[in-house]
Fold this protein.
Amino acid sequence: MLEFLIIFLTVLYKYVIMNTNNLFILYYAILGFISVLCVIKTAGMISLGKMPDIGEWPSYMIAALGFIAFITVLSKDANFILPFLIGIAFCSDSHVLLVKNFFISSLLCFSSQIVLFAAGLTKSRDLTRFMADGGIITRSSIGFDSPNAIFCFFLPVLLTGYLLIEKSRWKAFYYCISVVVSLLIYNASGSRTSIVLFFTFFVVSLFVNNVRKRDRYNFTKKGITVAFFVFVIVSLYVSKKFGADPKTPVNIILTGRPYIWNSYLSLNIPLIGGGVKSILPDSVILPQYARKSIFKTSIKC
């Protein structure tokens, strides 16, 4: 029960932030409660001999804890500290139990958000897109922070559900359900990023299914380890290579993102902490959810 409560509150924290504005006391209360529960669980594991005492932890882990604490204070963002706390608290637990708790928590919160929108308790933050042929389409967020955020919150359900299914026939059924839901999300949001992400996941998962279980584990472990750094390097390269001119084909295909990233870097805005130091030029047009992200933490994916 304690394990599920920690994971559920962690997932719920993201939804609370999305549905509220500047309720910092509530945010800190949830974070504090999660931290206390993680400490209690970790202390319990140490007392049972399932984890070494803190004094016996590897030096790199202590260094990582100090670095993450520093970054968390600097950025005022829990995206750094929460995964670390969960990693420590659950490092001796079954991976299946952890994934199952994430799946149930993510599914409950995602479904609840849809229900709240259907009941009229949350508003749709629609975006208008002007097409090259002169047409205009409205992208619905169905109660989420932005149209792109729908799939962002659906992705944990998609990935954890996939990891929980072992038998091939159930995986085939799961693929069918996932395709239908992803297409419904795309139909409502018009988010091309969402549908590209889904089919990328689909293709990669088919490849991974044909790999031996041991090799699959090693592939996943190494991939997760280097993925963040690879994507950072690729993003920086694309922004500097193709972001100077908003009319380059790559910039157009990526809906202006390289140009935005390049302008963001050219203004010397700190990547972590402090918010924007100067106003973005008028030529840089950001949707409201993106401006909110940058103004709040200076971190933009």
